[in-house]
Write a structure and sequence with these properties.
Two copies of one chain form a homodimer.
Chain A: H1 2-7, H2 23-28, E1 37-40, E2 43-46, H3 48-58, H4 71-97, H5 100-121, H6 134-153, H7 164-175, H8 177-180, H9 191-194, H10 197-205
Antiparallel strand pairs in A: 1-2
């Protein structure tokens, strides 16, 4: 949604109850059975990073390019997006959904990867520089879910003393009108889910 | 290497001993400490799918495009490449490196994902159609390592009765001069590794 808003493309938003997946979702993404799915001219595209690239490709002349024009910068953006998905999100999710030793190990792993990212940001406002780009959009949901995980667990993962640039990035990203007007509808969470980590996680996974 | 050969780009090939990683590798890929790494004008790029996209971007006018020009076809190529990395390779690797119940489960999971891929190929010679493209290159190493895994375990994963198109694809891919002249140098495997699944796996992982 954020990428479509950057491009100024109109769209319909269909919400999915992931505990009771619609036939439309199962038909559009039979391999992963997950959201998001973008349906463009009747054809479905799944996987958030694939969707982001598609939006940038198909509306390449609208507003600005989400991926850098320079091939090397573009490769770096893809590298860090992939890093977020493969190396950073899994320990954060594990930290949130486990207990004891397993949780401690996941915490250490998450901190290690967050430090890597802190150095990538290195005094920049956004990963894309002065405006948000591919990496910001790809990692953007983390800026939203990490504070929720922190509230529920009562443990802070990203503190401004340890992660000054990541903290500023999260605040800056969430503060963008484009982003804050299109966050996941937390108020629609069933109250019974709030205490159930997995229930909440699944919903956020939408 | 296959992608560089498609583009007709000259390169130097530096082999890594992954049991004794060079400083060059550790400096070029400090995050993953893995091969392959492409060094272009002194700048390193890691992660095989990121490298493939970079090669296609930076030498976009040489020979033919590795990724489809059409944005939707391009999204599909990215989707299936990602599927190979995320959903297919892990159970195949697990099947090869575990025993008992764990191995049986991995076998089932691998077969399920291979069947998905068989349907994607659907009577095509290559995933890219008449010539190899992004998905072929991305999954290409499987055509090479699966028969080796099969030889070592004595179990066939891809039989021509269950997977007629995948079998034909593997044979077709490995038969291309471009590919067969640039396979990993199996003859350089230390004899002592042949019996050690992990040793072999690591080397092939290079």
């Amino acid at each position: 949604m954020w990428a479509l808003r950057i491009k100024g493309v109109e769209y319909d938003y269909i919400e999915e109850d992931l505990r009771n997946k619609s036939n439309l979702l199962l038909e559009c993404n039979p391999v992963h059975k997950k959201v998001p799915v973008l349906i463009y001219q009747g054809k479905p595209i799944a996987e958030s990073d694939v969707i982001l690239e598609f939006i940038d490709d198909v509306w390449k002349d609208l507003r600005y390019r989400i991926l850098p024009e320079d091939p090397y910068e573009c490769a770096m953006a893809r590298f860090w997006s992939k890093f977020g998905l493969d190396k950073l999100s899994p320990p954060i999710w594990k930290w949130f959904t486990t207990q004891g030793k397993e949780q401690e190990d996941a915490y250490e792993a998450a901190m290690e990867q967050l430090l890597v990212l802190e150095k990538v940001l290195d005094e920049k406002k956004f990963f894309g520089g002065e405006r948000i780009g591919f990496v910001d959009l790809s990692l953007g949901s983390l800026s939203y879910v990490i504070p929720i995980y922190e509230d529920i667990t009562g443990v802070r993962l990203i503190t401004s003393d340890k992660f000054p640039w990541l903290s500023a990035w999260m605040e800056g990203f969430l503060g963008l009108p484009l982003v804050k007007e299109h966050l996941l509808p937390l108020d629609k969470l069933r109250p019974s889910d709030l205490g159930k980590r997995f229930g909440l996680g699944f919903y956020l996974g939408a």
